[in-house]
Write a structure and sequence with these properties.
Layout: H1 2-6, H2 8-26, H3 31-37, H4 40-70, H5 78-96, H6 99-122, H7 129-151, E1 167-176, E2 182-188, H8 189-210, H9 213-223, H10 225-230, H11 235-260, H12 267-282, H13 287-307, H14 312-326
Antiparallel strand pairs: 1-2
């Protein structure tokens, strides 16, 4: 509401653009629009692929924004935690044929590894960003080589259960037949399920950080840990817990990524870079910011690959540059 009061002209422009975008989604397209934008089915697939890719980026970046954005721990091994969680989830899902169990095991195992990282590395290097950067880069390289040794260079796919297989028909018209019958968009159920799961996880994280005592302690400890420790709070235990949750979310994201994409060497670097971009665009330490940044980057990648395939990668970094130039604190700056 404050934005609308302070920027009425920009608010009007945003509302007009939102109305046009909604019309493009729900209204049947004429031949003239299809000549400009292509088939509506391609547009809608790019839209939903971008949103669901943003959900995956949010899973990874939500853990990263806890560790880096909120606690100011520079963990450049976060992408390796993602890939490790994906491989663990693959092994569990293959051995037990229980897809949901792979999420639980990946979260617990990678979260436990995060506890070791926080206790061995970050507790000894608090406030020294350069040492944290160099050490976590080394850990990332070692983990990548170990995972390459164990799982090789093959691609792995985590199979979703039968109740999530196949497409579902959405109430979105992609075309109208000559007979006058409407053709509706069909979209994979598993991607929609993961999107809903990302929304639920984001809501729970926001509630935990902003409406619970543990969230209050975390935010107070980041602002002034000495004062909080003087009140008798075991701040190191709180930080270990937060780091474990952040690492566990990266492992959980690996299972998500292995389900509707694939797992292979190099994915750790890709998702570490995506997490950095999402946190920078959305805002350091902000869960809503991570969600907004993830959706923006996911949409930019998908629409870029459809309409600007040569410059799809450039589009992502152009967004980051514009945000840094005009709003360096991020689109949704955290308030503590």
């Amino acid at each position: 509401m404050r934005f609308f009061e302070r920027h009425p002209y920009w608010s009007f422009i945003i509302l007009i653009l939102a109305a046009i975008f909604l019309w493009l989604i729900f209204a049947p397209w004429s031949d003239g629009i299809e000549n400009i934008l292509g088939r509506k089915k391609v547009f809608l697939n790019a839209l939903f692929n971008g949103i669901t890719l943003g959900a995956l980026y949010f899973f990874v970046a939500s853990g990263f924004t806890l560790i880096f954005g909120l606690m100011r721990n520079v963990n450049l091994a976060h992408g390796s935690l993602y890939l490790l969680g994906g491989y663990i989830g693959y092994e569990v899902a293959t051995a037990t044929e229980w897809w949901l169990l792979s999420f639980v095991v990946a979260f617990i195992v990678v979260g436990a590894f995060g506890v070791v990282l926080q206790y061995v590395v970050f507790r000894r290097m608090e406030g020294d960003d350069l040492k944290q950067t160099l050490v976590t880069i080394g850990i990332s390289i070692c983990l990548a080589d170990i995972m390459l040794w164990i799982w090789g260079g093959d691609f792995y796919q985590i199979l979703a259960p039968e109740w999530l297989s196949g497409p579902v028909e959405l109430p979105l018209i992609t075309a109208v037949k000559s007979s006058g019958d409407a053709v509706y968009l069909k979209y994979p159920v598993v991607r929609l399920f993961i999107l809903v799961a990302a929304i639920v996880v984001g809501a729970l994280m926001w509630i935990a950080l902003n409406r619970t005592r543990i969230g209050m302690l975390v935010r107070a400890g980041v602002d002034d840990r000495d004062m909080l420790s003087a009140t008798g709070v075991r701040i190191q235990l709180v930080f270990v817990l937060v780091f474990a949750v952040g690492a566990g979310l990266a492992g959980l994201a690996g299972v998500v990524g292995g389900t509707f994409q694939s797992l292979a060497p190099g994915e750790d670097t890709r998702f570490l870079l995506a997490s950095l971009v999402v946190v920078i665009v959305g805002g350091m330490g902000s869960i809503p910011g991570a969600a907004l940044g993830a959706v923006i980057i996911g949409l930019a990648e998908q629409f870029g690959s459809v309409y600007f395939p040569t410059y799809a990668v450039v589009l992502t970094f152009l967004i980051m540059v514009l945000v840094l130039a005009f709003r360096p604190q991020g689109l949704v700056a955290s308030r503590r």
